[in-house]
Every structure is written in C-alpha cells, then in structure tokens.
C-alpha cells in the first residue's frame, strides 16, 4: 500500500514542527549491533536508502518478545494512515532509529530491540510495556523523503538566497502554511510561533537562523 496522499504538504508541516522542536540526537555506533534485523522483503529497486534526517512514512506493529502479545499497531491509529517521522532524531525509540537506517521504500523488516534501546528498566505503563522488555517490530516502509531540515527545505524559505533565514522569511512561510491548512487560529498565534522559532533556533541571537543553526540533523551540507 502506498502513502494515502502526496508527501509534499505533510513535509512542509513537519518542517514547521521541526523548527519548533528541540530535536534529540540519537546515536548509532556500537549500539547498532544490539538491534537484530531480519529483512522480510527487499524490492528490486532500492533507492533512496534511508539515512539520518530523512522523513519516513511507515507502518509498524510492536510485540513483546516474552509472550508475543501485540502492544502497538500503527494501522489502528490515525485512521489507519502510515506514520510520519524524522529518522535518527529521537522521534521514535532509539532501537527503531537504528533499525530503520539504510532501509528502502517497499522494504519489510522484522527487528528485535533490547530494553536498553527501548523503554529500559522503567518500561512504559501507558503503552503496556513492562520493565526490561525486549521488543519485536514488524516494519513496512513506504516512502523516504528529504527531511524537514534538508537543503531543499531551507532554500524554499530562504527567498533571497543569502543562506540565512530572516524573521520576514519565516513569517511569510508561516502565513503560507496557515493558509494551506485552512485552520482557524487566534490572531496572536502567528507572532507567538514566530517568536518561539527564533528562541529555539537563533542560538547566537543575531536575529537570523543561519544555515548551521538550521541544519541540526547534519545529514546535508548547507
């Protein structure tokens, strides 16, 4: 099954969310060996392969390794639409960030994730995951797209191509995004969101979001 609609609009919305979020940095390295990956299906054409910072569209089911019981099914969430998330920045558990690297559209994987890369000693009571639980996920990846902090996304906002985002450029982007989704918002919402974006991204306080400040995922060169 393919994504239910074009990825472009969703990607721009996630761009806004990424600017508002303070992304966590997920580490791979030695921990990657602790995630066991079994490829269930590999399409003949495998391009592009997923990498850190990409915007992914996928379905996945989660099971407890101890008894095989299912604790999560993305097909029963959000009217059955595949989930969207940015890979490698902590939007999912670390084990999934590792397990879905170098994956291609149409690929299916079964992965086993140890507690240290899932919910650890605390577990996750709300998700019915006990302490020290090893998790199994069956994943089907539908799409791999340039992520919200990509060069393309930056250039789309940077209208004057000076390699930094001004308040005017971000403001215009917000107006376009608000007009696109058509939702009613309080008159102060625009200014509040604009201020929040610069508070979280303008680290040197010069009134601009530079390419370096913007590209926190380090998956492209800006």
TrEMBL record:
Q: Which PROSITE patterns match?
A: EF_HAND_1, EF_HAND_2, FKBP_PPIASE
Of the GO CC terms on this record, one is: endoplasmic reticulum
**What are the GO MF terms of this UniProt record?**
calcium ion binding; peptidyl-prolyl cis-trans isomerase activity
Residues of the signal sequence? 1-26
Which reaction equations make up its catalytic activity? [protein]-peptidylproline (omega=180) = [protein]-peptidylproline (omega=0)
* UniProt cross-references to Gene3D superfamilies, sorted A to Z: 3.10.50.40, EF-hand (1.10.238.10)
Q: Which InterPro entries match?
A: EF-hand-dom_pair, EF_Hand_1_Ca_BS, EF_hand_dom, PPIase_dom_sf, PPIase_FKBP, PPIase_FKBP_dom
Keywords (alphabetical) are: Calcium, Endoplasmic reticulum, Glycoprotein, Isomerase, Metal-binding, Repeat, Rotamase, Signal
Residue span(s) of domain PPIase FKBP-type: 53-145
Q: Per the database record, which ranges form the EF-hand domain?
A: 145-180, 189-222
User: Any idea of its EC number?
Assistant: 5.2.1.8
Q: Which PANTHER family match?
A: PEPTIDYL-PROLYL CIS-TRANS ISOMERASE FKBP7, PEPTIDYL-PROLYL CIS-TRANS ISOMERASE FKBP7/14
- The name under which this protein is listed is peptidylprolyl isomerase
């Amino acid at each position: 099954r393919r994504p239910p609609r074009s990825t472009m609009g969703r990607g721009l919305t996630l761009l806004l969310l990424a600017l508002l979020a303070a992304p966590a940095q997920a580490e791979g390295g030695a921990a990657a060996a602790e995630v066991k990956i079994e490829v269930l299906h590999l399409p003949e054409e495998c391009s592009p392969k997923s990498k850190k910072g990409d915007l992914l569209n996928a379905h996945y089911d989660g099971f407890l390794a101890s008894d095989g019981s299912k604790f999560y099914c993305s097909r029963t969430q959000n009217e059955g639409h595949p989930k969207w998330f940015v890979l490698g920045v902590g939007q999912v558990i670390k084990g999934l960030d590792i397990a879905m690297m170098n994956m291609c559209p149409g690929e299916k994987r079964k992965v086993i994730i140890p507690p240290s890369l899932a919910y650890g000693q605390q577990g996750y009571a709300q998700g019915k995951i006990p302490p020290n639980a090893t998790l199994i996920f069956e994943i089907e990846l539908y799409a791999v797209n340039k992520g919200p902090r990509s060069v393309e996304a930056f250039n789309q906002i940077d209208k004057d191509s000076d390699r930094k985002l001004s308040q005017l450029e971000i403001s215009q982007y917000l107006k376009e995004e608000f007009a696109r989704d058509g939702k009613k918002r309080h008159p102060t919402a625009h200014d509040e969101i604009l201020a929040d974006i610069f508070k979280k991204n303008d680290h040197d306080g010069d009134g601009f979001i530079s390419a370096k400040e913007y590209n926190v995922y380090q998956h492209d060169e800006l």
